[in-house]
């Protein structure tokens, strides 16, 4: 049996909906509240790879104030800059993210994570 993890923000409605969807389907994921327990840059890079993103922006929330505070620009951001910024400002991580084995999906919409099962 593989383990399932959700990077969760309980204040986010999509995150709560995604967690509920998993539980409604008999899946009890390991819950990581990434704002309380920030991820390392190495962990974020692994998730980036599991998501198969074309750009680090695909896993970021560029509208958050922290994006500008980090001195980032959507036109010129590099993967390395994005990973470093998420490690420094966990709020920049798009949420929720469900990880299963060597794959991950962003729960926007929540049903997208069911591709993993």
Automatic annotation (TrEMBL):
<keyword id="KW-0560">Oxidoreductase</keyword>
<dbReference type="GO" id="GO:0008794">
    <property type="term" value="F:arsenate reductase (glutaredoxin) activity"/>
</dbReference>
<dbReference type="Pfam" id="PF03960">
    <property type="entry name" value="ArsC"/>
</dbReference>
<dbReference type="InterPro" id="IPR006660">
    <property type="entry name" value="Arsenate_reductase-like"/>
</dbReference>
<protein>
    <recommendedName>
        <fullName>Arsenate reductase</fullName>
        <ecNumber>1.20.4.1</ecNumber>
    </recommendedName>
</protein>
<comment type="similarity">
    <text>Belongs to the ArsC family.</text>
</comment>
<dbReference type="InterPro" id="IPR036249">
    <property type="entry name" value="Thioredoxin-like_sf"/>
</dbReference>
<dbReference type="InterPro" id="IPR006659">
    <property type="entry name" value="Arsenate_reductase"/>
</dbReference>
């Amino acid at each position: 049996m593989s383990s399932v993890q959700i990077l969760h923000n309980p204040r986010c409605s999509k995150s709560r909906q995604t967690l509920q969807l998993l539980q409604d389907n008999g899946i009890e994921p390991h819950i990581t509240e990434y704002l309380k327990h920030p991820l390392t840059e190495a962990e974020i890079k692994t998730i980036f790879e599991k998501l198969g993103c074309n750009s680090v922006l695909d896993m970021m929330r560029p509208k958050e104030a922290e994006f500008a505070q980090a001195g980032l620009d959507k036109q010129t951001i590099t993967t390395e800059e994005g990973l470093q910024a998420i490690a420094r400002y966990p709020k920049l991580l798009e949420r929720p993210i469900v990880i299963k084995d060597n794959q991950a999906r962003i729960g926007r919409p929540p049903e997208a994570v069911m591709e993993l099962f």
